[in-house]
Amino acid sequence: MWYLYQFPICPFSRKVRLLLSEKGVGYELVRENPWEHREEFQMLNPALRTPVLTNPERGLVLVDSRAIAEYFEETVDKAPMINGTAANRAEIRRLIALFDENFYAGVTGPLLDERMKKRLITRQPPDARTLRETIRLANDYLDYVDFLIDNRPWLAGATVSLADLAAAAQISVADYLGGIDWSQHEQARGWYSALKSRPSFRPLLTERMDVIKPPEHYGDVNA
Questions:
Q1: 127: left (phi > 0), else alpha (psi -120 to 50), else beta?
Q2: Cα-based angle 96, 51, 7 (whole degrees, multiple of 5)
Q3: What interhelical angle do 162-176 and 186-196 show, nearest 10?
């Protein structure tokens, strides 16, 4: 049995959960707050970051969402998520990096700091200037998603891929934390609604992070 160490609004854990569900891989969730610096978790991942995926029967510990995704792409044939020609696979990986690195650094990470960590850990109010900047950047990224969906059925091409899962995982956390304005992004909203309607995504929409509540539209697959 696989055990996934994560917390509900970790975007990288969400990406792994989506991938595992799309591939039909069973797993159990283990709640892990990495900011608590549990010694047992540090033994699994000295970097103290989620997700970590373990399989005690096989003696496996997998760390880092990209490494985990590549492992299952190589070992599970069902629902390939890095597929197509070499050029298509390169495009998928480019978009994964864009959302895992740039979107996280500019949008999801700051929102987690301001609206989760400051509330739950440091007991500080969020910085309004930082929030305004993250929402502005999120809007720029949604403009780019609009452009991609104007030209492709899915972000990287003709079929759903890990690029879509990575982007949706980041955007879903930003949406949970009130950092997404969908009003001017019909293409992006339609793409995201299609992903929210997939069976792999639905469990994410029901989970909540302690006392932090999402906007009313968050769990609506048509919103």
A1: beta
A2: 110
A3: 100
- Residue 7, SS3 per DSSP: coil
The number of residues making up the chain comes to 223
Q: Say if CB 133 and CB 109 are below 8 A apart.
A: no
What is the topology classification, in CATH, of domain 86-206? Glutathione S-transferase Yfyf (Class Pi); Chain A, domain 2 (1.20.1050)
Q: For domain 2-75, give the CATH number.
A: 3.40.30.10
The pair of three-digit structure tokens given for residue 217, joined into one six-digit string:
């539209």
Q: In this structure, are residues 111 and 132 in contact, taking their beta carbons and an 8 Å threshold?
A: no
CB atoms within 10 A of CB 128: 9
Residue found by looking up tokens 């309607």 in the block: 197
Tens digit of pLDDT at every position of the chain (223 positions)? 999 999 999 999 999 999 999 999 999 999 999 999 999 999 999 999 999 999 999 999 999 999 999 999 999 999 999 999 999 999 999 999 999 999 999 999 999 999 999 998 888 999 999 999 999 999 999 999 999 999 999 999 999 999 999 999 999 999 999 999 999 999 999 999 999 999 999 999 999 998 899 999 999 888 7
Quick one: residue 115, left, alpha or beta (phi over 0 = left, psi -120 to 50 = alpha)? alpha
Domain boundaries, the chain: 2-75, 86-206
